[in-house]
Specification:
Order of helices and strands: HHHEEHEEHHEHEEEEHEEE
CATH topology of the largest domain: Rossmann fold
Largest sheet: 6 strands, mixed
Strand content: 25-35%
Number of helices: 8
Strand order of the largest sheet: 6-5-9-10-11-12
Radius of gyration: 21 Å
Number of strands: 12
């Protein structure tokens, strides 16, 4: 192939690295791909790293040693995070989103890829220290959110079923009680989906009393794995004491008034404090 110019290498490297966040690429891979010396690739990586840092688009991390390489770590500046969470809160507070039973219609936001991609990167920033091996959610509305979190972490996504499927082989099933309606439901997980002793980050789109999250915790523990943490897009302020003890939410729903069509939902900003956003 013809000699690849620096500008072309930098453009291609940026695309490859950003397409797979947190994945460790060896320098040899890029050296063979572009027909260039490792020292040349290192210079290109430095250019990308400085540009990413300047524009607040993420960081390029290099790992030394024979098994080392380079990877892209997405980051969202605090100002951009807070702006996005304010925007989500504003949109969720729109009067026509209120559903009978004091619920909010969220599906359009959950199924908007660029929004959930950014939300996934925010969860990565806030929960990376938990060092999970897998991301886990329950079908179905939370799947787009969990999938984007899995992409940001570069980890496999596991979906818990409400019931079992013969196409997935033997499964572990449990009955759990929903925290809000007190109904008994069933959820199952294929035995081959999650190795014992793996660390699992549980993701869900909405939490009220925490019954579904509690069910996922119990199911993970039933197969011998460990819950590293729980992430939730929207959690209600009440009940204050939920069926799970520790979770990280991006938005807190304080009140939904079906008569006045007023919703009080507040983002949890980068300082860790909810911000007033009453509409």
């Amino acid at each position: 192939m013809d000699k690849v110019r620096k500008m072309e290498r930098v453009a291609a490297l940026t695309k490859i690295l950003s397409d797979r966040p947190r994945y460790l690429f060896s320098l040899s891979h890029f050296s063979e791909l572009f027909g260039a010396a490792k020292s040349t690739i290192c210079e290109d990586i430095t250019t990308i790293k400085e540009t990413m840092s300047y524009f607040g688009l993420g960081t390029i991390e290099t790992v030394a040693g024979a098994a080392g390489g380079v990877r892209f770590i997405p980051t969202v500046p605090a100002s951009e995070t807070d702006e996005l969470l304010h925007e989500l809160a504003r949109r969720l507070a729109e009067p026509d989103r209120i559903i009978p039973g004091a619920f909010l219609y969220m599906s359009d936001l959950l199924f908007t890829p660029h929004l959930m991609a950014k939300v996934g990167e925010i969860f990565l920033e806030r929960l990376a220290h938990l060092a999970p091996d897998y991301i886990l959610t329950v079908e179905t509305k939370g799947i787009p959110l969990a999938f984007m979190v899995a992409r940001a972490f570069d980890l496999p996504l596991i979906t818990v079923r409400r019931g079992s499927r013969v196409t997935e082989g033997s499964a572990v099933s449990i009955n759990y009680v929903t925290g809000s309606s007190k109904r008994i439901q069933t959820m199952s997980l294929p035995k081959r989906a999650l190795p014992a002793k793996a660390r699992v980050l549980i993701m869900d789109d909405f939490m009220k009393a925490g019954g579904t999250a509690r069910g996922m915790v119990d199911l993970v523990q039933e197969v011998g794995a460990e819950v590293a943490g729980i992430g939730v897009l929207v959690a209600t302020a009440e009940p204050e004491h939920k069926l799970v003890d520790d979770y990280s939410a991006l938005l807190i729903l304080h009140d939904v008034d079906e008569h006045t069509k007023v919703t009080d939902i507040r983002p949890v900003l980068t300082t860790g404090e909810p911000s007033g956003n009453r509409k």
